Please model this.
Amino acid sequence: MRRPVARQVAGRAGAEERERRGRRESPNPDRQGRARHAHPEMAGAPGPVSTDVQILDVGHPDDSTLVSLLDAPLVNWATRYHKDGLKKVLPKARGSKSPIGSWKHLQTDEPTLDEIKARFATVDGADGICAVLDGTGLAVVDIDGSGEQGRRVLADAGVEIPDLCPRVITGSGNDHYWFQTDRPIGRHVKLLHATAASVDVLGQGVVVLPPSLHPETGVAYHWRPPFIDTARLPLLPQRLYELIDESTHPTQPRLAPVDGPILEGERERTLVSALGAARRRGVQEPELRALADAMNARCHPPLGSRDLDRLARSIARYEPDTLDLDALLASVASATPRPTPAQALSFVTPAELMADRQTYLDYVVAPYLIAGTLTDFTGPAKVGKTRLRNYLIRCAVQGVSCLGYPAGLPTKVVLLTEEPITSLMEGLEAAGLTNTRDVVILTRYAARAADWPAMVRAAVAKAREIDARVLMTDTLPGLAGLQGDAENSSGHAIAALRPLQEADAPDLARLVVRHTRKSGGDLVEAGRGSSAFAGEADVLISMSKPKGARPTVRRLEAIGRFEAIPSVLTVERVSGLGSVPNTTDPKGTEPRTDLLVEDYRLVSGADAADPEAASVTDRVAQALPRNSLEAKTVSEMAELMGIPERSVRHGLDDLGSQLRRRGAGTRWDPLKFYIPATPDLKELSGTEPKNNTKGGEAMAIRANQRGPPGQAQRRTRESRDSSKPRHGRTLT
Model:
C-alpha cells in the first residue's frame, strides 16, 4: 500500500523513496487525485477529473488531524482555502516555489470557485498550492532559519506573536505566521536579521501553502493549529508597521556582487537582472540559457534546470532595445550639459589660495562654531549635551555673546533631531526658544521615509532658503541609521559624515552630537564608535562633569585645526534673563519679552568646587581610622557618620593618595579603608618597603604601641620577676 504523504512531514522520505512510491498504484480512491497531481508521469495518462469536489472539513483540528489531511486532493484544499477567504490560489509547479502559469492577473482580479476548481482539475505537474497576497489584505511574517532565534529577534524588536496565530511549518522547517493588515505594506525582505535567522514581512507576491512539497527537501508544508480563517486572523502587530516605516531596506533583496557567491534569496533576482541586461542587447534564448547556467554555478544552493529554463524563456519574450543610446543622449546634450574633466577639475597655486583666503575666522557662534567647518560634540549620556546645544542655538538666533566671547550676527538655525517631541519642547522651553521663528526642526519621525543623504540635502536646501548659517545634527549615529557594529566601522563613519562635508554651503557651520564610549579616553578616542568621526571633523568638543564640582558645573575640552580654539573651559549652568521674540510680531518690530532662561557662565576651578562635597570629604577624612587594624567598610563609615553610602564613596574618591585599603573586596573579606597616622615608608624613601604585607604592617603597629626596645625589655623583666616568689619562699 502507498504510504501517505503525511509521513513526509517527519522527514523520512527521500527523493528515491518518493519516486518508488510514485510508481505504485494507490488503492485508495480518495488519494488518486493527489497522486495524479503529484506524479503524473508515474501514474500514467491523467483521466478526466470531476469538478464536483468535497470541501475539507477540518473543524478545530489538532496536529494529527491536519497532518492526516495532507493526502487529500489539491482541489479539495483549494476549495477549502476559497471558503475561508484565501481566494487567490494557484497550483504550484513541481520542484519549484512558483505557480504554474501566469499569476499577474490575480494581483487585481479575484477568481471564482468554479474557475479554481477547473484550473486544479485540468492542470498537470502540480505538487502543491500557491497563494497571491496582492490585494487580499493579508500578510505573512516569514522566519528564515532558526525559529527560536527568529522569535528572539522579533521579541528584541518589540514584536509579539499571538499564541493563536495561524502558522505554517515549511518543508525546510521555517515558520510562516499569517495576519490581517489594515493598509498595503509591500514586500520587505530581511526587515530584521541576526546571525542564525532573518524575518521577512510579505504583503505582496506569492507564498506557498500546505500541502505543497518543498522543492529541495521533499517534505510537505503543514499547518499548526489553528487552521487559517481570514475572518479571524489577528492584526499585524503595530510595531511591525513602525519597523516597516523606519526601515531603509529596499522592498527586494540587494543584487549579489558580480564576482561573489549568489545566496538563497538573491538567486532569481540576480539572474533576472543579468539576463535582462543581455536581452536588451539582442542576446537570444540559447545564449540566455547558457548565461544562466554559468551564473548558476555561483548560486548556493544552485537553481534547478527547470527554473533556469523558465527564466531564460521568460526573458526571451521581451524585445531587445533598438534605441541608439549615444544618439539619444547627444540629442539632449544642450538641455543637460555634461561637464568635461577639464571643466570640472580646477587646480590652483598657494599664491592664488592666499589671495582668496580670509584673514580671519568667520565665527558664527564663538568660540566653537565656525563657518564652513564641521564640529564634533561628544559627552556621556545625560551629562547636559542637549542643554548646551540649546544654549548655542539661542546665542545664534539672538546674536548674543556665548561664554563671554564676542557675539556674532543673528542667524537662523536648522536642527535635525531624533528626540521625542515632549523632551525636545521641554529643552527648548528652558532655553527660551519655544516662541522663536528662527529655528526650523526636522524630527526623525517626520523624515522616517527618507534616507540620510536625502535628509542632509533637504536640510542644506532649507538652510539656503531661510539664510540659516548653523546646521545641527543630534545625534549623528541615530539619524544616519548606524545600527549595531556599523558605528565602529570607519567606512560607515566616513559615509555618514560625507553628506555633511560635501554640502555646497561654505557659510554653514555644522555641528554633530554623539555619545562618548564607556571606557573614556582622550579627546580623539572618547567618542563612541570609530575614531574616523574625530578624524574627519575640524573641531572636537567633549563635555564631562569634573570631580568635586557643583552639579551644574561642566568641563569643556576642545581641540581643532585652529589655534584660536580654547583647549579647556569650565562652565556653569545658571538662570538669567533672556529676551525672546514676540510670536504675534513675526517681523520683529515689537519689543522682545524678557524671560528667565538657562544660561552658561565661565567659572574658575576654585569657584566650581562644591562646598558640600568638600565638607563631606573632610568629614570622611576625620572619621577614617588611623591604622589598618581598625579599618572600616563603606557601610560602617556611613552608619558611623549618619550619611548615605554614596556620599562616603564620593569622599573616599576625593581623598586620592591619602587613602589606604585592605581586604580582597569579596563577601568574606570586604574592602576596608583607613588613613595611616604616619607616612608610609615608601613615601619617605621613595621605594616600596620589603615587609609590606598585612602581617608586617600589624607587627609594626604593635611595636609602636610597645614603645622603644629598652622600655619594652624592662617591662618584660618586671612582669617576669613579679611572678617569682621573693626570698626563696612561696607567698600565701
